[in-house]
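In response to the reviewer comment on reproducibility (Comment 2.3), we provide here a single inverse folding case reported in full, input and output, so that an independent group could reproduce the run without further information from us. The structure tokens appear first.
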């Protein structure tokens, strides 16, 4: 006599476990425009497929409306269960909610990717998948990627794309339909004067920062005619004015002075040797100095 009751009890426990497990695995949230599929066990006449209104509500047959936007399907099922019970409509309903169709089944991948655009997805994808849809990052991409959720009331999150593969895979986040993935342009510092490749240097490492020695190295290093001991750092202050600081690259390279952390738009100028400029390359000095002066004008 007690055996069927025991089986029923075990089935209830199993159902609770399955519901709890699926809830832990769910990640996509219900939003306006989504079409839901609501089923009530052993009561097929209560099956319905309402569409979520702009205000985030769904109509329930004979019971009015219920707010479900921002919930997972299992969360919506739990709320409908409580709504049925509190309304004395059913005492022990078993509710199932699935999303038949998401209103927004695409993500926008914008900014410094090779193919920015809108890409269709039907379920959550990793942020690395989203970047791959955009054909990867450009050379000017920053490593700090912003993800704006479809629900604008949720604060945007930042994913730091590490240059280390294991870290990038381990720390990645999920992107959902309707989200916007924005890859900003990396900051740039400038190395001018007597270096192999004068010009802009992208701050593209894990921390989007560069030091003076790193920037000079990325510019190909100094030439034999350079005077790195008399280098200058032109830095823009918060008030818009410019500061010109003397830095000794030679002593930094020898470990006798600490390296200097650069800020976006900083300019390092490596001067030419005095004798070489007098003898053969005075025009080069004027050109390099003029280039540096451009960045020193407010």
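Designed residues, in position order:
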């Amino acid at each position: 006599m007690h055996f069927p009751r025991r089986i029923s009890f075990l089935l209830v426990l199993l159902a609770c476990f399955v519901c709890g497990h699926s809830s832990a695995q769910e990640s996509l949230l219900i939003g306006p425009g989504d079409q839901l599929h609501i089923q009530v066990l052993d009561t097929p006449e209560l099956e319905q497929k309402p569409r979520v209104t702009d205000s985030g509500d769904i109509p329930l047959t004979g019971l009015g409306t219920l707010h479900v936007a921002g919930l997972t399907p299992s969360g919506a099922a739990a709320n409908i269960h409580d709504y049925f019970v509190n309304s004395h409509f059913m005492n022990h309903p078993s509710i199932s909610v699935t999303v038949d169709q998401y209103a927004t089944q695409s993500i926008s991948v914008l900014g410094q990717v090779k193919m920015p655009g809108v890409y269709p997805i039907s379920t959550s994808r990793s942020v690395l998948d989203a970047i791959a849809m955009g054909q990867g990052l450009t050379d000017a991409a920053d490593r700090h990627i912003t993800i704006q959720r479809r629900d604008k009331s949720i604060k945007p999150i930042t994913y730091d794309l590490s240059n280390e593969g294991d870290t990038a895979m381990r720390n990645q986040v999920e992107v959902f339909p309707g989200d916007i993935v924005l890859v900003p342009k990396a900051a740039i510092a400038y190395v001018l004067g007597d270096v192999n490749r004068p010009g802009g240097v992208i701050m593209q490492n894990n921390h989007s920062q560069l030091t003076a020695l790193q920037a000079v190295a990325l510019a190909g290093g100094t030439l034999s005619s350079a005077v790195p001991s008399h280098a200058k750092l032109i830095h823009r202050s918060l008030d818009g004015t410019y500061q010109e600081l003397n830095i000794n690259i030679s002593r930094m390279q020898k470990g006798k002075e600490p390296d200097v952390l650069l800020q976006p738009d900083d300019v390092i100028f490596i001067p030419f040797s005095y004798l070489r400029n007098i003898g053969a390359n005075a025009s080069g000095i004027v050109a390099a100095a003029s280039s540096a002066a451009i960045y020193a004008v407010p």
